[in-house]
């Protein structure tokens, strides 16, 4: 599931493939931008901002958001052509955007306007645990799981990290955020989790990287809690699935 760490890693792969090189092909397969051709422009920057990616070339910026199923691929691409949204090629490399939830070509000078509403980026230069903590507590009656997922509060957390953070802090996802004893500590731990996983393909929040042992509760409904053995519960109602241990999270 694409979260801030996934986007950070994708940006690094795109930098290695494209930055400093002249585009020899630009094939945009979104009707609104199908006539845009960035061929001849040098890709000079790739940015990640929360769950958003920006590829800057000349006066333009390719903005994308993966949503649930999207990806950027720079190696061998084996997908059906109808799933490809954009192809960028140089003389010796290429990048293909597959199933992108959002793809648009923006004026470079104003590309970041589309993410101006985001909170501090957990993996970005603007990260501030103090600002993130204040944002978390701005609506004390709101559920903590929902608040962590709000990109206007802090940018980069998705459903996996939201559930894992709730477990680590002993709170059920539906607990009011005002009951968090130390919001600053929560914000710092969130950043630490994403930072530790920014270069990993397989996320790990438990400290045990062996396959099947990486996560505390996410995706483990019915399995024993790693701390107390109580079966993990889940709730699939609403937009997101939540997981918790009824003993460890009160």
UniProtKB/TrEMBL annotation:
EC number(s) stated in the UniProt entry for this protein: 4.2.99.18
FPG-type domain segment(s): 216-250
Keywords: DNA damage, DNA repair, DNA-binding, Endonuclease, Glycosidase, Hydrolase, Lyase, Metal-binding, Multifunctional enzyme, Nuclease, Zinc, Zinc-finger
Cited SUPFAM superfamilies: Glucocorticoid receptor-like (DNA-binding domain) (SSF57716), N-terminal domain of MutM-like DNA repair proteins (SSF81624), S13-like H2TH domain (SSF46946)
GO molecular function, one term: class I DNA-(apurinic or apyrimidinic site) endonuclease activity
Family: Belongs to the FPG family.
Protein name: DNA-(apurinic or apyrimidinic site) lyase
Source organism of the structure: [Mycobacterium] burgundiense
Gene that encodes it: nei2
